[in-house]
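Supplementary Data S3. Sequence and structure tokens for construct A.
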Amino acid sequence: MAYKSTDDRKAASKRHYEAHKADYMLRNKRYRTEIQEYVRQIKESTPCADCKQQFAYYVMDFDHIGDKLNNISFLSATGRIGAVKKEIENCEIVCANCHRIRTHKRL
């Protein structure tokens, strides 16, 4: 439905959201879960770029090699899969120990 007034359009949009809030929340939760599983799968299937060992996903970190636009954890909770993939392209996957060593050398 077309609205002449911006205020009317905003009010209609708000009413629609309130009427379908549970659907929106469920969809957003599904998106977050899909993104988090994607990130987890990448961490589980990629060995450390430095020591070449493979560890559990929770030991692996994304080390930004270029300009850091966003945090992968933040994007996986709030962003879209495209933004996560784009940010991962600017990263190397390293284990937590190697990541700490890299960070220390940069300082």
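Construct B, processed identically:
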Amino acid sequence: MEGAYKEVYEKIVLNTDRFNLGDEETWRQIYEPFVPGHSPRVQVTRDHRYGPAERNVLDVYFSLEISETGSPVLAFFHGGGFFSGDKQWSEKYWGNIGNYFAQQGIIVVIANHQLVPYNKNEVSSREAERTTIKYPAGADDVQLVREWIYNNISSPQFGNGSVDKVVLFGHSSGGAHVAMNLYAAGDPERTVTRPDVFPPVAGVIYLSVPFWYDRTRPIRQKILQRYYGSDAENVWGPRSALGLFKNLPNDSAALDAIKLPTYVGTVKWEVKETFDGAMAFLNAYRERSQPAGTNAIFHVLDKHNHLSNVLSIGTHDDAQAKMLRDFIRTCTSSGPNTGHKFSFKI
């Protein structure tokens, strides 16, 4: 087994931080043989509707052996460059996340969200011109998932979860949608009816998330034009995850680092756009967080690239999975909004 992983790591080193359209299928096929099949100890219920859009459906995974009332809940939002991805990407993905964490006694919600239409062979398309998938549609989907969890997850049908122990987990563009939801108050044109974070969030995980965008990349230009209506930085910049965070009101509950612990994860071979954005977000977080000067939990995963980190969850290559599991446990062990003591071995 170690020899097989060595070959994978060698391929990662060979490709370094290069990550192009279509590479996600290559890396999935490389990692999929290492992922076990669905566990008979885990119950999965599929395609629960959480909103009106076609893609507003989610799956729930929970343990059949660990039946504690008030179990922690992990809500996962997949990546895909804003224009691709699915909660059932393949037979094993993203069930790898559901199966792994459910066996740790954590209920897992894996949701689809709306996608920006994209055709790599066209500069524009009629579908894109007609689309209503505009900012902040992805963030609104995250909100609807949070509300569905709040209204349903405590039922035995979904594993007896606790609404006060919900951790949000977004990979790549999925994490950008999570951030644009949590930091909605940074946009004066969006309606935020409550000063607190509601429904409750016990913690947030950002894994290889583009908090900011490199508009010089042709693929990014198309996405920005379609999602934000323009690729001009003065249009999308204030509405990016980083821009929204910087513009949060000083009394925003999302700035409270004690009540909303934040994990920012990246990798040794990270996409430059994503790594640069993460550094900018970490600096902004330290500048704006309360108590003053608080840092987010930050981790660079050795040996991995932009996608292999999340693909590795559920395999014997469990460095990333263990870090996330420990963060979730720490966020949800103290009860709602009481503060947390973090201890990680790096």
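The chain has one domain: 1-331. The longest strand covers residues 161-171.
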